[in-house]
Amino acid sequence: MVMIAALLGITLLGALVTFMANDRYAARLATAISSIPALLSVWMYWQYYQHFQGAGNALLTPGEAAFVQQIPWVELAGFELQYYVGLDGVSMPLLTLTTVLTTLALVSSWTPISERQNQFYGLMLLMEASLIGVFAALDFFLWFVFWEGVLIPMYFLIGVWGGPRRKYAAIKFFVYTNVASLIMFVGFFSLVFGLGDEISTLGLPAIAQALRGGAELGSLFGFPLATVAFVLMFFGFAVKVPVFPVHTWLPDAHVEAPTPVSVMLAGVLLKMGTYALLRFNFTMLSDVAISLAPYIGAIGVLSVIYGAMLALAQRDLKRIVAYSSISSMGYVILGLVAFTPHGVGGATFQMISHGLISGLMFMAVGVIYNETHTRMIGDMSGLADRMPWTVGIFVSAAFGYMGLPLMSGFAAEVLVFLGSFGATETLGTLAPVFTALAMFGIVVVAGYLLWAMQRSVFGPYRLETDYEVAGAPFHDVAPLVVLLLLVITLGVAPDLSYRMIQHAVNPILDVGGGI
Amino acid sequence: MTQLALQMTQSSWTALAPTLLLALSALALLLVDSISPEESDSTLLAGVAGLGSLAAAITTMVFLFGGRGLPTEQGGQGIVSLFGDQLVVDQMSLFFTFIVASVVTLVVVASSDYLRDHRYKAEYYTLVLLAATGMSLLASANSLAVAFVSLELASLPSFALVAFLKSNKGSVEAGLKYFLVGALSSAVFAYGISLVYAATGALQFDAVATAIGEGAPTGVLGVGILMIVGGVAYKTASSPFHFWAPEAYEGAPAPISAFLSSASKAAGFVLAFRVFITAFPLDVAGAAIDWVLVFQVLAIVTMFVGNFAAATQEKVKRMLAYSSIGHAGYVLIALAALTGGVDQSQVLGAGMAHLLVYGFMNTGAFLFVALAEYWGVGRTFEDYNGLATQAPLACAAMTVFLFSLAGLPIGGGFFSKFALLMATVNSGTWLLGAALIINSALSLFYYSRVVKAMWIEDPADGLELDGYPVGLYTAVVAAGVVTFLLLPGFDVVIGFAESAASLV
Fold this sequence. Notes:
The complex is a heterodimer.
Chain A: H1 3-20, H2 23-52, E1 66-76, E2 79-87, H3 91-108, H4 117-136, H5 140-161, H6 166-195, H7 204-212, E3 219-220, E4 223-224, H8 225-240, H9 249-256, H10 259-284, H11 286-291, H12 293-312, H13 317-338, H14 341-372, H15 383-386, H16 388-402, H17 408-421, H18 430-456, H19 474-492, H20 495-505
Helix pairs in contact in A: 1-2, 1-4, 2-3, 2-4, 3-4, 3-10, 3-14, 3-19, 4-5, 4-10, 5-6, 5-10, 6-8, 6-9, 8-10, 9-13, 10-13, 10-14, 12-13, 12-18, 13-14, 13-17, 13-18, 14-16, 14-17, 14-19, 14-20, 16-18, 16-19, 17-19
Chain B: H1 17-35, H2 43-65, E1 80-82, E2 87-89, H3 91-114, H4 121-140, H5 144-162, H6 169-200, H7 205-213, H8 218-235, H9 244-251, H10 254-279, H11 282-285, H12 291-311, H13 316-336, H14 344-375, H15 387-390, H16 392-406, H17 413-427, H18 430-455, H19 470-485, H20 490-503
Antiparallel strand pairs in B: 1-2
């Protein structure tokens, strides 16, 4: 199946063409190019939905994965590295999220990006290609190449087109994530050396099966090697998620990044961290994950509460959304660590749902900023009069964030809480405590979002400008509408994604239990 | 340490074709120059030199893919030995000739623009090709005498080339410094050879090894080997003989810096690989001196010296010069990790693969500096501010070079560094592996400073670039494309490197 190779090829080639293109038509060219992988992946999603619905986990039952392609690549130091890609119920929705969100983010770039457009759009497409690769790769080295391939364009996107403190934010992002990658790399390779002769390739399925097959790993400096590797990899991925206390790069990166880059950062890049946690830590080393569950769960709950509290203290709309992302990713951690079908499934569903909703929120804030040139809550009020469409969608998105029923956020959070409440096997008596604390996070979310909306978009109109604020142009509002429709669709019919997710996560849970 | 080198089945002049092509193009250049002296248009000269070196590079590729230099038992056409075993053409010789010839091609193409206002162009190209001939012979040398003569053939033109900018004080000073250190270390090297000859009565590599095995005076031999280590350290710009490198690379014309830091370094390493593995195999020479231990110390010191010094530089070219020392330290792992019981083809192959990838990415980076010098934008990091607004394509290529040098998976440097890391792990030399990781992480800091300046910093007021020179652009972009393609295509490189390494 060459479908994934086609996705990668089109985006990479498109990136190159756009990079060389003339500034005048780079925006439209890139958007047109990116619509091809978007449509193709939607078609693939539909195929998957119809024919592969019951396929298992790509790592544990690799024979059932969809769109698999496997070509030998490099034989290096006794390992066979391969071009090995394939999709299962976890990666298929994430890949579709990536391609669709990229196209929408590119449309939303038309207004704010006016300088060095060919470079901007070229880098966005390069990042899309890398993200597709991250979710599709089933060989460690291939995956790692794409993983790093996401960081490099992101560094430029923040550093060149960002706000006033862009240089600081870009360097901080680059240092944090590269150090994290290095630590994760060391952690993973300690596993590979621990396995020794039991594996001959670095295909993730082979490694996952060897590890779950009860391979003896030995110990390192008196600690079990599995635990050492787990902690190193967890740290590496936690920076990416991010969780408390390694989250400090996120607000800087978000605030300085231009709107479309924030959309990609919150919508997809954060999911790389949780996706990798699910694939590596929770699938390969599930025993360690269960034994460390209370600590990881505590980190998740702490992120929920702490992120929400920080959001409560912000006056900048974009900062509010940025901090609330930390809070939302805390739910994902809690769901994963519950290690119950609904917990892990809900966490995966939350990745999709948060990708759509946070992308929508950032985009809406961006559209408001395009017209008002401020994001400070105190500077404006009553915007609903002037830009009814944008504000209407912004309010809907905020309610989605709060978990209003019939929107995807509700389904995701209900599933996570169901799962974590029943997680007596991993969290023991802490399960209800953690769940209750995390649910309290929703109250705080509602608090700061309602407060922010009441101050900025409702009430009498007030905004000091030397021009007339009018509604946003059509091409700014259209991506918002599409995203909102997707949020509602998944809220009404979560089974469009949840069933395939459930089939993919069930094999992971064989060692777990609970509901 | 296989004895396959003895089973030379075919004696044929054609095996030397790549080396001969380089030498003949040098002579052709002198001919062209005497027919039309002081040709103001350098296209003809650069064309002859470029075509000659490109033909040499392509010939080595054809030979490698055609199975030349591979023993017939392994399905090849056999290892070729010439002049009474003084020269040997095996896969390793072809591999390194390919590195030298392709670097020379890039350098020559770039020089056509760089030299636009200079005189003595024909001499410049001739000297480059003669030095390349020497490096290529060094890759084939099979006796200490030939090695010394080839080393001198490679070195003497280099001294003149470094001092090529006669009116530039820095260039002349660099040339003199390079020459003095070079003369000293040549003397040390020659004295080391004489001591080895005194101890063993042989110059040919295999004969030296045999003589050591039959019992040679270990004291004299040990001192001789140590002096040869010194000669090698000089040629590869490794500690403790690296002091010439930053001055020479900074003062020299940038294309010559590219040539010396890539091709010359590779030539130094092929000499080291051959001498130490064929002539002083550890199982027999270990009694005289444990040279693996010596190289372990040198590798670690070189890595740290190069990278820490690079991190404190203010000028891009000087930073690249120190980074080049750091990379010499990485490649030294190929010798330092040759502990007992380790698979030689993997360890040595990793070093060879890194030299090939390095040949492209480092040459490209120095040629970008040549481009900046051509534009006259200045030499410090700040002077590169905002270059990407004017020259995005060249800056994109430079970004690929720098990130690949750092070991990010955007070019072949990622895999070659990983191969070196695996070599340290498999041989149990964890300290070398740790030094490699620490220094790679550190190197990202100073490489990304250039990237940040080019892309993220705002350009200085009135930054205007003086045209887009075709030759320099072609060379930089071609090196960038090859550096990137070496990531998906690394299998070919490591395949030939490991197979060549197993033959020595």
